[in-house]
Design a protein that fits this description.
Number of domains: 4
Radius of gyration: 31 Å
Shape: elongated
Strand order of the largest sheet: 5-6-7-4-8
Distance between the termini: 54 Å
Helix content: 40-55%
CATH architecture of the largest domain: 3-Layer(aba) Sandwich
CATH superfamily of the largest domain: P-loop containing nucleotide triphosphate hydrolases
CATH topology of the largest domain: Rossmann fold
Strand content: 5-15%
Number of helices: 19
Structural class: alpha/beta
CATH class of the largest domain: Alpha Beta
Largest sheet: 5 strands, parallel
Length: 447
Amino acid sequence: MELPAQREPNDVWRDISAHLRRIVGDSTYDIWLAPLVAHSWDGHVLALGAPSRTEGWVSNRYQHLIAACARAVAGTDVRVVFAGDAHPDAPPAAPNLELCNAFNPRYSFDQFIIGDGNRLAHAGSLAVAELPGQAYNPLFLYAPPGLGKTHLLHAIGNYVTTFSGGVCVRYTTVEAFTNHFIAALGSRSLGRFKHTYRDADVLLIDDVQFLASKARTEEEFFHTFNALYETGRQLVLTCDRLPQQLLSVQERLRERFESGLVAEIRPPDLATRVAILRKRVALDRIELADAAALRLIAERVPDNIRALEGALIRVVAHHSLTRRAIDLELASDVLDAIYPAHQPPALSIEAIQACVASHYRLTIAELLSSRRTTRIAWPRQVAIHLARELTDCSLQAIGQAFGNRNHATVVHACKRVSERLVNDPAAVHELEELSSLLRNADSSRPG
C-alpha cells in the first residue's frame, strides 16, 4: 500500500492503526493507542498527538512499534514523532512536573487474582481504596519484581478515582520523583514541584528502594511524606524488600514506612497461577483448544506473574504465526527452550539409607556394618536395591556408600531382593511403602 504525501493525515493514520490493532490486540489498542490522533503527514514523517497525561508513556513504549507498522503499510521508511517531538528546532519546553495518573484500567481489583501469597496485600489495598487515610496509613507493599505490586497501586487509583469523587490521586515512581525534583531545581520551580505532590489526597509511590544513596531526593521525599501523613492523607508505597532491609535509606524514613501496615506478596501457588492465566485468557478472548496448556505454562513459570503472562503471550504469538491450535503440544514446544520441564533432583543414597534404617529400626552404622545377621542383612539389601532403582549412581558408587563394598556385592544384593519379591507379598509391600516414602519426601523438597 502506498501512502502519498497528499493524503490526509487521518486517512494515513487509519491505515496504519488498523495494522497496529492486529499486532497489539484489541484491549491494548483500545487502552493506549485509540486516543492517538494524526497531526500531520508529509510523506515521510507522521506526527501524532496523545493526551498529555499518557503521551510520555505511549511514546516510550510504542513509538518504535508504530513506526514499524507504518513502514509495513507504506512499504518505505516512515518516521513517527509525537507532538512534543515534531519541531526539533523549537526552544526546550519547561520541565513537565505532571504525574502519571492514567491508571491502567486492566489493573483493577476485579482483575486481581487472590491467593494465599497476596491475600493480606489485597485486603489492605482494598481497605485503603475504600477509606483513604483512615484504614492503614502508610500501606507498605513489598515483594520481588513481577508479583503484582504495581497492579495493586493502579487498582487503588482506579477505585478511588471511580468511587471517591473529588479526591486527588497521584501516582509516581521514585525514579520519576527524582527526575522531577532535579528538573524543578534546575528550573527554579521547586514550589510548583512541592505543590504537585503535596496537594494529593492519595499518593501512590512505586519502587521506594531506589531512594537509596540519593541524599537530596531522600530529604525532599521525607518532607513530602510528612506533609501528607500529618494532614491525614493516604500514602501507599511499594518496595522489593522489607523497610528494615533498606540499609542505605535514612532510619527515620524506614521507621515511617513501618508505622502502618507492612504486607508481603509471595509468589503464587500453582492453583493461583492457573487462575491468573484463565483470567487473562478470558480478558483477551483467547481461544484455547486444550485448557491443559494453561496448567503446563503455570507449572513451567512458578515465581513471577509478569513472566507467567509473558509465557502465555509467547504461546499465543506462535499460534498467530503458525495457526497451530493452542494446546498442550504447542505450549510445550514453545516453552521447552526457555522454561524446560523441571527435573527434580535425584534421591541421594544417604536419604535412602536414613529412610530404610528408620523403617527397620536400625542405626546407619548397623546398616553399613559388615554384620550379616538377618535383622541387618535384609534391610541392607533393600537399601542397596532402592539405591540402584531410585538413583543414577553407578554400582561402584553404591558399593562405596555401603561400607566400601564392591560392585559384585551390589549386584548380589539386588538379585536377592528381586528373587524374594517373586514369592513374598510382605516384601513387595515393604518395598512399595519405602519407595512411596522416598518419592513423597523428595517431591516435597524445594527444587
